[in-house]
Design brief:
Oligomer: single chain
Distance between the termini: 83 Å
């Protein structure tokens, strides 16, 4: 069966089809953006609600590079040298455990990007999302800042999720931070002994 459709009708049909396709794509994009913001919010709140931050990880290396600029300071947190297979790595860094607000976005990795980040010992293949390390960067106006990181990842089967909470600081503040962590551990022990 063959239909004879004039040029104006064909243009209308194509226009309607294009509108249907683009409206479907924009809905998917909006849904994806909502999911990413929801993930960001969840990690942010999780980081704020945690009371037990470590100074280092047993599963990967984490280092801070802190530099002064004309407008304040830039920091770069490098996560590399994985000691375990880490798939779908996501991380957020919250400055001074600042309360959540929608204006000041905290630095992240693995949340808003389109691909995933995998850190596996001795494997690097960027086309397949395997990296030697990842960098989380941010800026601040103050020199003395405590950076609270939440790093999450999954195992190779993508069924188990792992989380680590790490307090990162520059070498200038390291003594103060070690004292804070020790006081936090003493408070934790005191609380456990009075509750137990």
């Amino acid at each position: 069966m063959c239909y004879n459709i004039d040029g104006d009708k064909m243009k209308k049909i194509i226009l309607v089809m294009l509108l249907m396709i683009t409206s479907g794509c924009s809905t998917k994009t909006v849904d994806s953006d909502v999911e990413k913001m929801s993930k960001y919010n969840s990690l942010y709140v999780d980081c704020l609600n945690n009371a037990d931050f470590k100074l280092k990880s047993d599963n990967f290396n984490i280092e801070l590079d802190f530099t002064q600029t004309d407008n304040g300071y830039n920091y770069y947190i490098v996560i590399d040298e994985p000691k375990v297979a880490m798939y779908d790595v996501e991380a957020i860094v919250v400055e001074n455990l600042m309360n959540y607000n929608e204006i000041d976005m905290m630095p992240t990795v693995g949340i808003f990007e389109s691909g995933e980040y995998n850190l596996v010992p001795y494997q690097t293949n960027k086309q397949n999302n395997f990296y030697g390390g990842i960098v989380i960067s941010g800026d601040t106006l103050v020199e003395n800042v405590d950076l609270y990181a939440l790093v999450t990842w999954k195992d190779v089967t993508m069924t188990k999720q792992f989380k680590e909470y790490i307090l990162i600081t520059d070498a200038v503040n390291k003594v103060d931070v070690e004292e804070k962590v020790q006081v936090n551990e003493i408070d934790k022990i005191d609380n456990e002994s009075t509750n137990g």
